[in-house]
Amino acid sequence: MASEKEVSNGVEWRIKIADGSSERLVPEANPASRLLLGLKSFVVGLALKVWKFLQKAWDLGVDDPRKVIHCLKVGTALAVVSLFYYTRPLYEGVGKNAAMWAIMTVVVVFENSVGATLYKSLNRVCGTFLAGFFALGVHSVASQSGQRFEPIIVGASVFLLASAATFSRFIPSVKARFDYGAMIFILTFSLVSVSGYREDKLFELAHHRISTIIIGTSLCIIISMLICPIWAGQELYTLTTRNMDKLATSLDGCVEEYFKDSGSVVESNKECHKKLQGYKCVLISKAAEESMANFARWEPGHGPFNFRHPWQQYLKIGSSMRSCAYCLEALNGCINSENQAPEYIKKHLNNSSLKVSSNSSSVIRELEITIKTMKKSSNIHSLVGEMNSAVQELQNDLKSLPKLFNPPSIPEADTPENKKIEPISRTMVKMPLMEIVPLLTLASLLIEIATRISGIVDAVEELENLAKFKRASNDKC
Amino acid sequence: MASEKEVSNGVEWRIKIADGSSERLVPEANPASRLLLGLKSFVVGLALKVWKFLQKAWDLGVDDPRKVIHCLKVGTALAVVSLFYYTRPLYEGVGKNAAMWAIMTVVVVFENSVGATLYKSLNRVCGTFLAGFFALGVHSVASQSGQRFEPIIVGASVFLLASAATFSRFIPSVKARFDYGAMIFILTFSLVSVSGYREDKLFELAHHRISTIIIGTSLCIIISMLICPIWAGQELYTLTTRNMDKLATSLDGCVEEYFKDSGSVVESNKECHKKLQGYKCVLISKAAEESMANFARWEPGHGPFNFRHPWQQYLKIGSSMRSCAYCLEALNGCINSENQAPEYIKKHLNNSSLKVSSNSSSVIRELEITIKTMKKSSNIHSLVGEMNSAVQELQNDLKSLPKLFNPPSIPEADTPENKKIEPISRTMVKMPLMEIVPLLTLASLLIEIATRISGIVDAVEELENLAKFKRASNDKC
């Protein structure tokens, strides 16, 4: 049995011996060729893996060419910084280890978006400056207190300030804006104050570090802002509007899918399914939105956005969209439920439900346009009104639903119209309520979604006021 | 009016003049004292802000003392590393700039959890090693190609490799595990290959860098693992079980809250409201779970966890919990709806709904215990069975609900029990369905939640198999 484990790949020949056991027939048993075979399959497997990896990378690049451009930008920045080292005069000017700091700055600070680069650059410069200042102060106190106490004072100050700065990184408001700065503060303070003990030219060291860091960060900022800039604010704005579009499409699609004749189910293809699942993007984009909003606040005015554009408001819009998406998730569960209402009951709510969903999605689309054009919508209120009246209509249809269950008990209702309903309602008396529960849940969730959409409207209106959107030119009122 | 704006803080005395205008009475109008006053209020305001900030920081420390311990650990590590600089022999041993690399390593690599520290340490060491190897190769090629081509070759290689490594950071599988390593690769490669042009002792430089980085990382790993270690895996495990508890409590609480007599609404205090909102923690913990799972895989076995504990499975459990929490969010919306079913209809579904919610939360609590004790539960299947039968019961109650609407039309149903229902159902014939829609939605969402809980059960069972949980000792079967 042990021999079976040894050869796990390839065909195997066996011969049965009289005593019942079997023996393996090995065509070429010499270990060298087996090693070669194993090595060959290993290399082929590795090559296949590498090929798949490269293919994935290629797809990623084709999918978003800006990523490729970013990589070339980083390469360019590093190549330019290397010039400082190659060119003798510059090299002499900023000191021996200076080029190293410039290279390090470029590698560490250059981020994908302008906002992130600015955040890191400013944090690095300020952190270095502040730490240098503190370290020089500690150094001057320590150097006056004698050879014996000097290391103790320096060590204690490193311990205390590093602990305090590390702790500050846990405080949410500091973490959001100055996390990197606090790290650089610890780094620079430790380096400068510890070097102070050995180095005579402490001031020169601090000066060189600061100047090379400023050179490195300026280069990064210039390159990231001038060559195909990727603005975090713009990204956040695009993400928000794209999520609104996806939410509207999903909402429309889910309700349509539910009320569609069961005959045409075959039509629903993969593309359609993907559209229906668009709301899931809304559910998972919280972290991305937060980091973008954090970076966007460092960016100067760009495109249609001012320097102090209210980016935080986009987070509120995102969170109100998510609260809609939660309901849509639950609604999706109902749609896939086993219990399905009979067609004629469905038909009763068909029109009003579709009206609510299409009016709701129109409101979302109008909000999308409001944000896209950055102009106050002139007809958002009428759209919200339409949505609310559609909700009212759906509620009325729900109210009239029991008629289908209850045969009219009062003879005066014996109009021709009621006569038509009579035979249906008779057959329905025994119909279990259970079958229409998913339908009612759908209706109820649609109403809830419409309520939550009002929350998005409020959030967008707050954005309009904060960012001082102008009225649209085709304003009728 | 302009003068009013100037003095915005402090009490102001005004005198009315005959022509109707008023004039400000300024006790001491000289600018020096006003400046002093302004400065004073600024300092007081600043002191207040700082005080508030410190108070917040203090609360943070009291809330989670491990954060304070982490800060002291970082301080200790930095103080120890400083010894390398203070102690002459060590200082001579590793070269002039070496201490700097050790300090830098400690500052950059020391993270809150052991997993994160290990991730950064291993990435730093491997990235440096690989980059040093590449850089030496490029250097040997460049140095043989003459003085003129040397900078071109070095520059081009920096550009190409930096671009490629930056691009690799966009690939999800690389980003999850080797993001930091790729950055260190770029950094080290640029530094070593650019230094190679000037520095004669390139090999020595690379060797010193590697050795000091190994010293720094070892120190960080030892301190983070030995002094009050915070394991990312343990954190993920705690987060998962705590979220399960919150989900179960919310589910129970929400349904109880809905069916509670309206008279006792006043009882619901802040504490209770907080409990009901527990599911929101489940909704927002995706990012935290992912980063913890990423770090946990670097950790060696600790506590009850092996080295290759299936941490990724916790993400699946988390995501199935979130899909429950979405429904709970929608359910919460229904509970706060304006339309409320009348008490007697509520009573009809009261028992079965409460049974579904309590049985569902029992299943979640059992799963929590399974994960907490890391032992296969012996009665999870019976609990799931109970949950399903409760769902069946609720469905039966829903089925019998139309009876309340329809007076029994067939005389044979004239049992004493039906006689009791009769007078109620007579009054209900005209009751709009609208009023019971929230109740039906609640029931339907409860059923959906029970279905999704089966998803959590499956995910936990997969974890049981992957992590080879043993059977509980009080196993009856």
TrEMBL record, chains A, B:
Instruction: State the InterPro entries in the record.
Output: ALMT (IPR020966)
* Chief place where the protein resides: membrane
Q: Where are the transmembrane segments?
A: 68-86, 98-119, 126-146, 152-171, 178-198, 210-232
> What membrane topology does the UniProt entry give?
Multi-pass membrane protein
Q: Name one GO cellular component term.
A: membrane
Arranged from A to Z, the UniProt key words for this protein are:
Ion channel, Ion transport, Membrane, Transmembrane, Transmembrane helix, Transport
Q: Name one Pfam family in it.
A: ALMT
UniProt subcellular location? Membrane
Q: Does the keyword Cytoplasm apply?
A: no
GO annotation, biological process: malate transport; monoatomic ion transmembrane transport
The similarity comment for this entry is:
Belongs to the aromatic acid exporter (TC 2.A.85) family.
Protein name (database record) = Aluminum-activated malate transporter 10
- What is the protein's species of origin? Quercus lobata
Upper classification of the source organism reads:
Eukaryota, Viridiplantae, Streptophyta, Embryophyta, Tracheophyta
Q: Which gene encodes it?
A: LOC115962608
